[in-house]
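Chapter summary example.
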Amino acid sequence: MKKLIFKKFAKDTLFFFIIMCLTVGLIVWTLQAVNYFDFVTQDGHGLKTYFSYIFFNFPKIIHRIIPFIFFISLFYMLNNYELRNELSIFWINGISKVEFANKIIILSIFLCIFQILMGSFFSPLSQYKSREFLKNSNIDFFTSLIKEGKFINAVEGLTIFIKTKNDDGSFSNIFLDDSTKNKSRMIYAKNGVLIDDNQTKIFKLFDGRVINKEKKKINVFQFDQIDFNLADYSSNTILVPKIQELSSQELIQCVYNVNKNDVDYVNKNFSCSRSLVDDIIQELFKRFYKPLYIPLIAILCCFLVIMSKNNIKYEKNKKIIFLITFFILIISEASLRYSTISVLATFLYLLIPWVSFFCVYTLFYKRTQNV
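The structure predicted for these 371 residues follows.
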């Protein structure tokens, strides 16, 4: 009977947790998708690249919101069960409040393991895949960004300015500043036309002048027609993977090599230097250690079962528990930023969740014995 009761509570909590994760995740994902639309409107990437990029960013969002959603889900279910007198079923069937809390802690440990897997493998893998889409894409929409009276710098090292766009689709008074090939080149043309199809992206320029500057030499020549190949240029978008997009194995290997050999470590994805070690350690803490706050959140929420809803202090107790747990969530985020400023800070960061959980669990045990 006890197993059936716990199974129902776990099922209800997990169902609500999944629904909340998907709902909040989709809201955050939609807001981010709007911000990422700059890849199309400013950087010139195609819609296929855009949708692929934002799709593979969804696991990252889920990973980040798991502790908060678990807190809201558990808090809501415990309060809801109490308001519907369903918690009384546990006590009537001989289940102690400590035993009930232990089951919830076990549930939180499984969720903790799930978040570690999400943070250490699935989230960085999906983010790396999304970065690969940008890296392997071309600037499909770049030519559509070229408009009159506007400086276009979607391509790294290339600036284009067009004064007038004519009714026939051609352009007049065109200026290009190209510094993409270790030299500076400025081009002015009286007229020009864009040729954009699946194979070519060429800016045909007519009646103009080219100024080449290489080292201390300046060469100037005039032209009747010149073809400027836009397909040779890459987007301004950052293509090198960020730390959070790298695999845990690469990050651990980086820290190990730098600390052991006291030299920079370079692999195909990034160059690991000693200056990055603190940031990498913080990332590893976020993936493997921050989820340990989930059992602490669980035991804090369990304080809701100590008082009955008929107790005059129940509402006050509920608000205090909510605020304390929410504060712990903030601490888990804020402390991560300062976890590597010194050896003492690292030690305290590693110690806080264990000491806090032990103290809170001891307090919960004593409170249940006095009720």
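To summarize the output: The chain has a mean pLDDT of 81.
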